[in-house]
Amino acid sequence: MVKTLAAQIKEFKKASIITPLSMIGEVICEMIIPILMGRMVDYGIGRGDMSYIVRTGLIMLAVALGGLFFGVMGAVFGAMASTGFARNLRKAMFDNIQTYSFANIDKFSTSSLVTRLTTDVTNIQNAFQMILRMGLRAPVTMIVAMAMSFSLSPRLASIYLIAVFILAICMFFIMSRATRYFQQVFRRYDDLNESVQENVNAIRVVKAYVREDYEISRFDKAAANIYLMFSKAELNMAIVAPLMQTVVYTCILLISWFGAHMIVGGTLATGELMSLLTYCMNILMSLMMVSMIFVMITMSQASAKRIAEVINEESSLKNPENPVMSVPDGSIQFKDVYFSYTPGSGDPVLKDINLDIHAGESIGIIGGTGSAKSSLVSLISRLYDVTEGSVLVGGRDVRDYDMEVLRNEVSVVLQQNVLFSGTIMDNLRWGDPNATEEDCMRVCRMACADEFIEKMPDGYNTWIEQGGSNVSGGQKQRLCIARALLKKPKILILDDSTSAVDTATDAKIRKAFREEIPNTTKLIIAQRISSVKDCDRIIVMEDGRVDGFGTHDELLETNGIYREVYESQVGAGANADFDRPE
């Protein structure tokens, strides 16, 4: 874990080294001042030597300015190193997340990834800055001050040793108890982010069903859980401050008491006692800094582990050593395919799939909810890998291809259509960054998106809000289809992507596909028979198996499921859909 995080310091190594060195310089300056102060009292004030006082005062001023310089350097370079380190951590996580397969994404919830990229990184940033600035300063201050104290009076300095020993034992027990609670806090943050994310994404549904009170209650519960965990952790940490103050004041009283007796006895000078009291404060303040470092480390341990998990997670899908860099055509074959999202857990989602689809064919796919239609097409672009068997595209196993090459040739319009904030033209060019305006307009005509784009005041420069919230469901679907067509793929998969458009527009889109991209293999998942009946062949899915595969007329004659759905949609039960009652 430490090695994973340390690797992200990268170009900020110099700043990470300068910061603690500056802190050592500041410590040295701070340690010199008490000695000079004691000498001023004993040799300057005690003897009435004004010139000695002035000389010593000027030296103290120079030393103080030196300490100020080192302190500023430490603060500047510490901030630079910690913020740069946090930036690199976020980048490393985000870059690795982009390589994740769907299976990896399923392992980490979206809310958990957001927490790790934000709250967890902030905790690590604060801890790193604390370690750079105080991690070396505190122990160096303690050691130097202890050495200077023993050089002045071993008897009084031994009081510090006892105090340090007592505090170390107490801090160990306090930190061990608090750590358990801090480890649980960040899992609660995941729950809180999940509540916020779902509410914001589905705010229209929340308002439509008047569920604001329920969502507020859900959020309050998640926030209360975080409050309780932090309260338990902070209650354990609350004893640190009074414990430190007790030890500090006890040490001051003991040193003052014994020191006064030693001055009276002539074994200690007044200036030396002043220096010892100053060193006492330095030592105990160093202990307080060490306790703060332990608090930050304790809080950030769980965050560090969670961040390292994201960075070290390897995609379940990997390129072969010598990948195939071109897809010859859009032919598709499924050979004895079985698939489970989690191998070894229950029945497979897809069972014994054998299909042979020719390049350029138009294939319809229908089936009830949960019949694994989307799972079937997800294997073609290798969003998931088969559990058993093989999927071939262009005559080669999809696992033989470079994934980027394969996915550039297999264009998928998923059930959940996503548009990004930017203009319509920006969104379209996700399909091809180098596409001309004419290219974009051509695919919009094919997807029947030009009909509404040209009516907008800014046309193709119309701004799309995040998630496409300012366009209708049907408009969003047509824009996503146009974006997919811009890739000029060898295989086009429409996963129920025309469900929000009217039947007339659906027919226009299918006609454009036949006329404009005849060599592209088209797989159309739909619930409406009218959307697939003109396809070359139709796959009927039932419970993860292929129940029928043939033309519209063939399935009407041979497949009972297809015939029943056709009659329910075209005949008297025209309002029925594919999902049949048990």
How many domains, as an integer? 2
Principal-axis shape: elongated
Our measurement of the CA-to-CA distance between the termini, rounded to an integer number of angstroms, reads: 52 Å
Number of helices: 21
Q: Which percent range describes the beta-strand content? A: 5-15%
Gyration radius (Cα, Å) is 35 Å
CATH topology of the largest domain: ABC transporter transmembrane region fold
Strand order of the largest sheet: 6-9-10-3-11-12
User: What is the architecture of the largest domain at the second tier of CATH?
Assistant: Up-down Bundle
Low-confidence spans: 572-577
**Main structural class:** alpha/beta
Q: Kindly state the mean pLDDT as a whole number?
A: 83
Tally of strands = 12
Explain what the structure shows.
The chain has 582 residues and is of the alpha/beta class. The strands form three sheets. The chain has a six-stranded mixed β-sheet. It has a four-stranded antiparallel β-sheet with strand order 2-1-4-5, with no helix packed on it. It has a two-stranded antiparallel ribbon with strand order 7-8. Strand 11 and strand 12 form a beta hairpin. The radius of gyration is 35 Å and the shape is elongated.
